[in-house]
Design brief:
With 87 residues, this protein is mainly α. The protein has three helices and no strands. The protein is globular.
């Protein structure tokens, strides 16, 4: 996959959304067209790397663990409620 040159701007939340929308989601879709199982593994690896980065960022690890647990549970409930995929 070719990634065109891009300029990321805005708040940290906006930049994270841009990275997801412009790089991660298209890559997931491209992999998914060839091999859905690999796409799922790719999504898991992206999530695991992001969690690892956050946990090792020097923040309070116990507080970070709680935040990750809460957001994960909320996402699970949302996906179950809407019976839809995020990607």
């Amino acid at each position: 996959m070719k990634i065109p040159e891009m300029q990321l701007e805005g708040t940290t939340e906006e930049i994270a959304e841009q990275v997801f929308r412009k790089i991660i989601a298209p890559m997931f879709e491209e992999i998914n067209q060839v091999n859905p199982a690999l796409a799922i593994n790719f999504g898991f690896c992206i999530a695991a790397n992001a969690i690892g980065c956050y946990l090792s960022s020097g923040t309070n690890v116990d507080r970070a663990e709680k935040k990750i647990s809460v957001i994960t549970r909320n996402m699970v409930l949302d996906v179950k409620r809407h019976k839809s995929k995020v990607c």
